[in-house]
Amino acid sequence: MSRPPAATISTDVDPRKIIHIDMDAFYASVEQRDDPSLKGQPVAVGSPAARGVVAAASYEARAFGVRSALPSVTALRRCPTLVFVRPRFDVYKAVSRQIHAVFAEFTPIIQPLSLDEAYLDVTANLAGLPTAWATAKAIRGRILEETGLTASAGISYNKFLAKLASDHRKPNGQFAVTPDMGAAWVETLPVARFHGVGPVTAAKMERLGIRTGGDLRGCSMEFLRTHFGSSAGWYHAIARGQDDRPVNPDRIRKSSGSETTFDRDLILAAEIEAGVQEMADDVWAWCAAAGAFGRTVTVKVKYADFQQITRSQTLSLPVDSHAGLRAAALGLIRSVLPTAKGIRLVGVTVSNFTPRAEGGLPLFD
Predict the structure, then answer these.
(1) Which positions in this protein are listed as binding Mg(2+) (predicted)?
(2) Measured CA angle at 312 (ends 309, 316), to 5 deg
């Protein structure tokens, strides 16, 4: 739909005005912006190695069915002309800071979800714009001006609907779900698109004959409790377009981690330790930029037979140096070495953060 007329909104209490901003193919778009030869090309951010995984895909690549988390070999099979680009997380984080600075021009009530998406409460926007629609349009314009990148926006009276709406006019568009249309609009959508309904739950709902929001709305609370336990209340509410959660700018990030799948199963301790150190380096780069230092270090190991284990250590003081994080991670991986069977994946995570340092990045999920 196009811009909804203001006259369609009629409630006794003024609804909140919430915008969900989602950058369009963020990592891939940054790469296409910085390398003009990639424009118009099917681009995948990630590794083309046999065990590589696509971290992000341009819209040209998506036309071939290439998506994030797809194995690289499958992606190349679907799109033989796919161009792989190694990720540059330091660049993506820098661009994300620019985007968040734009958000702050319009509202202080910002809840980032990742580097490339966030909720904004613009019920009282700092720019004095009359509608949330105009505010979303202005934000998208400023992002384009500052970064050269496009963003899509969903506008509604709650977070659940705003997030659904932001996907409705992608790329480089916006869509509004007004209070008088919310419940009816939700009824038409497949439940697999709902935030909080993952693939496993969607498959379970399919088996129960629940395919759309309308099907979900037709389920009694008793039925939902029987089949979905403590999630029943959430499903009952969203089927009616209801979500009372506020935009929460103080939601603290609980951890930061990085993992890699090796090109081949590794047995040699030196190679495995090198992989762990590389992941520790990635995590430290984020910690240092964010001014975020945690006391708990965790190493994850996945063996060739897909058995997975973790080893953790909680220290008395935060790990506040690159060398300290490396040493902690190496100590943990050495507790499972030597190994008789190959290791296909390792990961390093830091958690149990202390309050962020002044001037650091926001510690949001």
Answers:
(1) 22, 116
(2) 175
Helix (H, G, I), strand (E, B) or coil at 306: coil
Catalytic residue among 117, 145, 278, 358: 117
CA distance 11 to 298: 50
Is 256:287 a contact under the CB 8 Å cutoff? yes
The answer to whether the annotation marks 282 as part of a ligand binding site is no
Q: What is the CA radius of gyration of the chain?
A: 22
Task: Indicate the burial class of 194 (C-beta count within 10 angstroms; 0-12, 13-18, 19 or more).
Answer: buried
Going by C-alpha positions, the residue among 226, 221, 158 that lies closest to residue 186 is 158
Q: 116 a known binding residue?
A: yes
pTM for the model: 0.73
Asked if 183 contacts 159 with a C-beta cutoff of 8 angstroms, the reply is no
Q: What is the mean pLDDT of the chain?
A: 89
Question: Which of these ranges, 57-61, 261-265, 359-363, has the smallest mean pLDDT?
Answer: 359-363
Over residues 32-81, the pLDDT tens digits come to 999 999 999 999 999 888 778 888 999 999 999 999 888 899 999 999 99
Q: Could you tell me how many residues make up the chain?
A: 365
Instruction: Summarize the confidence of residues 327-352 as an average pLDDT.
Output: 95
Instruction: Please indicate whether residue 271 is annotated as part of the active site.
Output: no
Q: Is 176 helix (H, G, I), strand (E, B) or coil?
A: strand
Q: Which domains does the chain have, with CATH numbers?
A: 26-89 (3.40.1170.60), 183-238 (1.10.150.20), 255-353 (3.30.1490.100)
